[in-house]
Design a protein that fits this description.
heterodimer; A: about 150 residues; alpha/beta; five-stranded parallel beta sheet; 5 strands; about 15% strand; globular; B: about 725 residues; alpha+beta; six-stranded mixed beta sheet; 18 helices; about 60% helix
Chain lengths: ~150, ~725
């Protein structure tokens, strides 16, 4: 893969941001340029900026929490899939929700993978592998590994 | 009309015939008359000729005698007297003959008599002169002669003869003339007659032609009648009902069709000539005879009659008898049918009708029925008393023209009527809510009116069956119900909100506690002592347990507060499979065998609940397995089902685990109730959830157990239908 990789992370919980960064590092993704937005509106603005400014570096992957202030993860997901430059990137939903309805909904909206935040450290670290898989392999394999 | 014309035609034909006969007779008479005239004329001609000849002969004789006299007188030679003597000898005869002829003719008798006198005078004159010559010589005689007397007499004779003949000729001529004119007249008459005859012949020829034509037409008609008769005969013998012809005087059967004979168990030849009344049971013959008599009097009579078969059994029949008067005799023609089946059906119908009415009158609803067109046939007692009608008859004037006119609330009439019209047209179920006025207090009450079409075997609508249910209370309660529903929906939304909060917002901090405790242990574990590390473990376990409790509580509250579904159904076989799939890791880890019956049915509850139910019970069974099992044994669970006495499905989930002490068998279903410490992980919610699920579905759940040997959890559920299921099992060993 070409370096450096830019990853959009929409997450309002700093504890989780830390864990995500750790999970990526744990799986060899040390040079990732992680762009963290803490609320939904900021995420939408970021996508807007990428689309309008061709000189801006486009993210290669997005990690989106569903439960964000001001705008839902679903909305962000939809916006990315409509984006001129980012519509094809892998999008991994990272959420504490275990609701089958949420899984179904994001799948319909075009999410690449669904990661339910586990209650244990080792489990959370598996997110790094999921991101690698999403960057490498076809979508179906990524989905299976979630 | 036609017969009158024919009769007139006949009269005219007869007239023509008489006319022809009259003409022929007239012509005949004329011919006879002419013939007679001709005969008479011919006869007269003959007579005249005879008279002429006789007169000529007489004149000639007298002339000869005179000539002879003269010769003698001159010569005195007696030789000359010879003709005279002949004449003297002949003349008297000739005179007699002439007289006879005239006498026969009844004509000229005077003239003949005058001629006779003249001839006598002449002869006498001749004789005198001859005598005188003889005696006195020639001179005396000549002198006498010279007196001219003789010549004059002769002249007179000649004249008399000529006169006689002249008269005769004249008469003959007249006769011929008259005859000729008659003949002319006759010719005209004959010609006219002939023309008339020719005309008549032509006319009669036409008549003959038309008669021939009529005859041909008649023959054709006869042929047509014969064919029609043949057709009727075939119809008669092939008819599906019995037909017979009986002599009305004797009551004997003179003809019948095979059906008639067969329905009585006989052949046609066997029944011919037997008495009609023999086919009727002894006791009914008098009545039968009077019925036949009535048919004879009225011309036609239809009646029901019990008939007798040859084997002595009877059958009911409808007999229709018509009197038929022939030229010579009087017959009774009838048909009859074997009404056994119809009678049976009628009886059954009557009975079913009776049952319906009994039922309808016993029901508290307003029950009515109409015919296929919507005309009221029946309303029950509840109807009439609700509407304040004297009887059902009063109801009959309403549908379909005016649907319960005065009874229906004016605002509801249009919809009621249009729906009813639509149903009548399409046969679709009729259903409408309408207000009907209660006659006892004049209040309008809401009713749910429904009607369904009753169809016969060919799907033809035979009647409509309807009922109206008083839904006033429901309608009154509807507003309150709506409010309550709204509140319930709100409370459900709140609950969902809580559920989400519980699953997400409350879980989040716990997750942080748990993960960062682990991180602390991982990163700084080497710097901590054994106690500090165990504190971290307590914190992590506490957080995890709190998380499990939250999840369990959420599930439980979702089940307890779930909105009731309209008609839930779940395939328990599929539910068991889903549950086992969810438990697959656990089953593998425990090396257990899980089997289920092959006849797991469809049951009435949401499938997601059924999966939770099986998952909890099987999970429990495996969780509370024994520590060790004897050689050849392993943890095993059996899911079975059978119908209980109440018609519900009785499920059982049996295990060979540690079992439950009797005193705890009720307690275990309480929420957060646990019998075991940390050795068995659990939230204490699983069985409470199971109980909630089963009870919400209207069933019961309980446990039977033998401590140390195993437990069996039983629960009942209402079935949907029984399907066929093959034997299936699911076990760790058998799992592919």
């Amino acid at each position: 893969m070409s370096l450096p990789l830019t990853v959009l992370l929409a997450e309002d919980n700093p504890g989780d941001v830390f864990l995500v960064r750790r999970a990526l590092e744990k799986h060899g993704l040390k040079d990732v340029d992680l762009i963290v937005v803490e609320d939904g509106q900021a995420a939408l603005r970021y996508i807007e900026h990428i689309d309008t400014d061709d000189s801006a570096v486009s993210p290669g992957l997005a990690l989106v929490d569903l439960n964000l202030p001001r705008t839902t993860g679903n909305h962000i997901l939809t916006r990315i899939r409509q984006s001129r430059r980012c519509k094809a990137i892998p999008i991994i939903i990272v959420t504490s929700s275990g609701s089958p309805m949420d899984r179904e909904a994001v799948s319909q909206l075009g999410a690449t993978a669904y990661f339910q935040k586990p209650g244990d450290l080792a489990g959370f670290m598996r997110l790094g592998q999921i991101v690698r898989d999403a960057l490498d392999g076809p979508v179906s394999q990524v989905a299976a590994s979630s | 009309m036609q017969s009158v014309a024919l009769r007139q035609q006949g009269r005219i034909d007869r007239l023509w015939r008489y006319l022809a006969i009259a003409i022929v007779l007239g012509i005949g008479f004329l011919f006879y008359h002419e013939w007679r005239e001709f005969q008479a004329a011919d006869h007269q001609v003959d007579e005249t000729r005879q008279l002429e000849k006789q007169t000529d002969d007489l004149i000639s004789s007298i002339t000869d005698a005179e000539t002879s006299q003269r010769g003698f007188l001159l010569t005195g030679d007696p030789q000359y007297l010879e003709p005279y003597r002949t004449a003297v000898r002949v003349i008297p005869g000739e005179l007699r003959n002439l007289a006879a002829t005239a006498a026969a003719m009844h004509r000229q008798e005077k003239e003949v008599a005058y001629l006779q006198t003249l001839i006598h005078d002449k002869m006498a004159d001749l004789k005198r002169t001859i005598d005188l010559r003889d005696q006195s010589g020639a001179d005396a005689a000549l002198a006498l002669m010279r007196t001219d007397e003789g010549r004059l007499t002769m002249e007179a004779v000649r004249k008399a003869g000529e006169l006689l003949l002249g008269t005769e000729y004249m008469s003959l001529h007249n006769l011929e003339h008259a005859s000729e004119s008659n003949a002319n007249n006759s010719l005209i008459v004959v010609l006219v007659g002939c023309v008339g005859l020719v005309f008549l012949l032509v006319r009669m020829g036409w008549a003959v032609d038309s008669v021939v034509k009529e005859r041909e037409e008649f023959a054709e008609r006869i042929e047509e009648s014969r064919r029609m008769l043949e057709r009727w005969k075939q119809t008669f013998s092939g008819a599906g009902f019995g037909m017979f012809v009986a002599d009305s005087r004797t009551g004997l059967i003179v003809d019948m069709n095979p059906t008639f004979a067969a329905m009585h168990g006989y052949s046609v030849t066997e029944l011919l000539g037997s008495k009609l009344s023999d086919l009727v049971p002894l006791g009914g013959r008098e009545e039968f005879s009077s019925a036949l008599h009535l048919a004879g009097e009225k011309g036609r009579h239809m009646f029901e009659q019990q008939h007798l078969r040859r084997d002595g059994t009877g059958f009911p029949s409808l007999v229709d008898v018509t009197r038929l008067v022939d030229r010579r005799s009087e017959f009774l023609v009838g048909y009859c049918s074997d009404n056994t089946e119809r009678k049976r059906v009628e009886d059954a119908l009557k009975e079913s009708e009776e049952r319906f009415r009994t039922l309808a009158s016993a029901l508290p609803e307003l029950i009515w029925s109409t015919d296929a067109e919507g005309n009221i046939e029946y309303v029950n007692q509840v109807w009439t008393s609700y509407a304040g009608w004297g009887s059902g008859d009063e109801a009959r004037q309403y549908i379909p023209l005016r649907p319960w006119k005065d009874l229906l609330h004016p605002e509801d009439r249009d919809e009621y009527f249009s729906r009813w019209k639509e149903s009548l047209g399409t046969g679709a179920k009729f259903e409408v809510q309408a207000r009907l006025r209660r006659s006892s207090d004049g209040n309008w009450r809401w009713f749910l009116c429904r009607a369904v079409a009753v169809r016969d075997r060919t799907s033809q609508i035979v009647r409509w069956l309807g009922g109206c249910t008083d839904i006033q209370q429901q309608m009154e309660g509807a507003t309150q119900l709506k409010l309550a529903n709204l509140a319930l929906q709100q409370s459900n939304a709140d609950l969902e909100q809580f559920a989400y909060a519980a699953s997400h917002d409350l879980q989040e901090p716990l997750r942080m506690v748990s993960i960062y405790s682990q991180l602390l242990k991982e990163e700084y574990g080497s710097a901590l002592d054994r106690h500090a590390l165990s504190y971290i473990d307590f914190a992590v376990n506490g957080a995890r347990r709190m998380s499990h409790l939250l999840t369990g509580l959420l599930t439980y509250s979702r089940v307890a507060n779930a909105l009731p579904e309209i008609s839930p159904r779940a395939d328990s076989r599929a539910a068991v499979k889903s549950a086992l799939l969810n438990l697959a890791t656990f089953i593998d880890d425990t090396g257990a065998s899980v089997k289920f019956a092959d006849n797991l049915p469809l049951v009435q509850l949401p499938e997601i609940h059924l999966v939770q139910l099986f998952q909890n019970l099987v999970g429990n069974a495996l969780k509370y397995r024994r520590e060790t099992y004897p050689e050849g044994e392993r943890p095993s669970v059996l899911i079975d089902v059978k119908l209980n006495a109440g018609g519900a499905w009785l499920f059982s989930v049996s295990d060979n685990g540690i079992g439950i002490e009797p005193e705890y068998r009720t307690q275990i279903f309480g929420i957060f109730k646990r019998l075991h410490g940390p050795a068995f992980e659990g939230t204490g919610i699983g069985l409470a959830l199971c109980q909630k699920i089963v009870e919400r579905a209207g069933g019961h759940i309980w446990v039977e157990s033998e401590p140390g040997k195993g437990s069996t959890f039983f629960f009942t559920l209402q079935g949907v239908e029984t399907g066929e299921y093959e034997l299936a099992s699911y076990s760790s060993a058998g799992r592919g």
